[in-house]
Amino acid sequence: MTAQRIDGNALSLKLRADVSRRTAALKVKGITPGLAVILVGENPASQVYVRNKVKACADSGLHSVLEKYPDTLNEADLLDRIEALNQDDSIHGILVQLPLPAQMDAQRVIEAISPAKDVDGFHIASAGALMTGMPGFWPCTPYGCMKILESIPYDLKGKHAVVIGRSNIVGKPMALMLLKKNATVTICHSATQDLKAMTLQADVIVAAVGQRNVVTADMVKPGAVVLDVGMNRNDEGKLCGDVDFVGVEQIASYITPVPGGVGPMTITMLLVNTLEAAERTSQS
Ligand code: GUN
Fold first, then answer.
1. What is the average pLDDT value for the chain, to the nearest integer?
2. What distances in angstroms separate CA 6 from CA 24, 47, 54, 86, 266, one per listed residue?
3. Has 120 been annotated as catalytic?
């Protein structure tokens, strides 16, 4: 069996067309969804990410502001800036790009963002809302994975999903989202003793480790659905995921490529969250 590749770019375009349409409808009511992106320091990868986020806003008709600060910024000043954005009615979403410089307490900074504007879904209130099934913003990458799963003819109910990775940004929220869809969920991580024994039982595998070849063909049950959240470089410097795509493609039923799978969905879900934050203000 050769797996069907799931095209994250195509799905992204479809969802972004809907974002553009709903944004235009909101503008008629006098509201332009606005995202504030804060970058502290000069991390090269972060600079690319924030540039892409700002561009995506412009492409879909959202307003955005990018605030760049030197890595010498002190935390109190950053917290003041976040509070000003919390009070700013033209801003519906606030995103502080991670990682932050070492002198800052990233969690304390995230907790300063109003949960109503926490479009990254990293605030403890957002995490609690996801855990308890209350309304709140979901972290963009696992949310994008759920949209990918919704885009294929596949019912998660009763299926065994194995999530590899336990970060607050991907692994843990991913597990909760799969659970909400009635999957049986296992979370594997660096201390898991026999990863292959786990993945061989999986109907769905989500690999979110940040390391090449964590999932190889011999670890996958025939017909499994495989989502690859990894973003790594191979020996030739080319982008690759956590999954050995060439091998696993022969075993799985559906698979996301890297690049062009989960990646484009992350920014798309950021746009969706920002739009929804703005829509909520129009309803209140
Ligand atoms: N750094 C890496 N990924 C992310 C993300 O999704 N949001 C933020 N704020 N920082 C990140």
1. 97
2. 29, 28, 26, 37, 15
3. yes
Q: Which two tokens stand for residue 80?
A: 């003041």
Intrachain domains 29-115 and 140-262 with the same fold? yes
Per the CB < 8 A criterion, the answer to whether 120 and 107 are in contact is: no
Residues 215 and 199 sit within 8 Å (Cβ to Cβ): yes
Domain residue extents for the chain = 29-115, 140-262
CB atoms inside a 10 Å sphere around CB 184: 16
- Which top CATH class is 29-115? alpha beta
Can you give the pLDDT at residue 159? 98
In this structure, the chain runs to a length of: 284
Which two three-digit tokens encode residue 8? Answer: 């994250």
Residue 93 β-bridge partners = 35
Which numbered atom of ligand 1 lies nearest the CA of 169? 6
Indicate whether residue 265 lines ligand 1 (CB < 6 A). Answer: no
* Ligand 1 probe mutation, 97, 266, 271, most atoms within 8 A of CB: 97
pLDDT at 284 over 70: no
Each residue's pLDDT tens digit, 179-203 = 999 999 999 999 999 999 999 999 9
Superfamily of domain 140-262: NAD(P)-binding Rossmann-like Domain (3.40.50.720)
At 214-251, the pLDDT tens digits run 999 999 999 999 999 999 999 999 999 999 999 999 99
Is the whole-model pTM more than 0.85? yes
Residue 244: alpha-carbon gap to chain centroid: 21
| Dihedral sign (CA 77, 79, 80, 82) | positive
